[in-house]
Amino acid sequence: MLPDPPSYSAVRAMLRILEEKGHVRHEQDGPRYVYRPTLARDSAKRSAMRHMLQTFFDGSAEQAISALLGDSSAKLSDAELDRLARMIDQARRSGA
Length: 96
What we know:
Layout: H1 8-20, E1 24-29, E2 32-37, H2 41-57, H3 61-70, H4 78-94
């Protein structure tokens, strides 16, 4: 819970702005509006990842992965490392 939550009108204003920008749409459910994203989750993840790579890692996936691997709080299990190795091999074979 937020220590100082936004007011009802502030939330409505933010949702209106997000809808005007095309990020959300609403459906009426009785007396309420139900807001939904306009972009599929996978598309949003890819877009966010591209933005993060550009913003923090000069567009380098290698630098981002290196930062994750070097972070002791984000220890990867042997199974996760094996899956990553298989993904790298697959990317190498497909020319990605």
